[in-house]
Amino acid sequence: MKSLQLIFSNPRYFAPAWVFTSLNIWFGTWAIYIPSVKEKLNIDKADLGIAIFCLSLGVFAIFPMASKIINKLGVGRATWYSVLLCSITALFPLLAPNYYLLMISLFVFGLSNGLTDIAMNTLVTEIEKEDKKNFMSAAHGFFSLGGVIVGLGSFLIPFIGNPALHMGMTVVVVFLINLFFYKKYLNIVAAPVDKEQFSLKLLKPLLLLGIIAFVTMGSEGAIIDWSGLYLKEITLAPETMIGSGFLAFSITMTLGRFLGDGISEKIGSVKIVVLGTVVAALGYGLVLSGNTLLAVAGFALNGLGFSVIIPELFRIGGNVKGVESAKGVSFIAGTGYLGFLMGPVILGFVAEEASLKHSFYVLLGCVLLVLLVTVSLKRRKS
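Predicted structure:
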């Protein structure tokens, strides 16, 4: 909680933390309107999955170029320019008049998201190095806080009645706050990025961790993209409740990230991952009940369970014997982010071929797989 005090007491730390919040607000506002976009363009779940994949493709397209852009512009300027790009491109998907322009707009939005993600994490890393202060975990908590804000904003859907207008209002507010604080980090320059190639020998010691990261973040991405549609089609939730699952998930995700470090110190990294998977599995049990209120409670348990897993994977991955910490963390981040982006796409095809409820049975199976892998990891560690 000391890092929270640091962020709220000093604009130097609040400024980059708000970029984390902003990224999830942009992405989350798009996500809660996925059902509306599906109806507007009259597309099926498989087509929607392909469109979402275009967003993922945009993110991965920027990855090879991101470090060069950040080093050339300076990490502070790169972060600010990415904020500007996201503020513009966030509007495109909800303005797309047809399916093909939706795919193109999501690709461009993905490019902006990917650059922002890498720039803001590099920015926080550089500030931590300069100031000898740790606030990365809390900054990721602010990312989750963005989801809470989006969830609360979802209750305005019936009153606004226009997805593009809602996103436009959101973009303006988020941008103005960034505009007020961006000078606090604008001139920060990152140290040269390590250009060492990834070694295949890392696959062996980190394989189990990579599986957990892929499945866990894949589940997170699926809930973000499909929870609204699930509540609408499976539990027949009223319109005012469609965003409540995402809200509940985001609230508990935020709380878990702010409090997880203290729990980890008491029970250890592997045990907290086991605990997180058990809580998430119980959450899916409630989601699959088909009752709206129980499903919302289930999404809340999902958020609480998943919140503590990824931070611990970074901690474990950075301490694998015989592997440099930077390489371990990089591998976890890569596999996890791949799962986050691919999970919703895979679930879209499952939903189209079977049903949306079957997709969530798949997610439950994935969580149980994580539990088995984690137990195996614990035995190896012992």
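Summary: Residues 96 and 102 are 5 Å apart (CA to CA).
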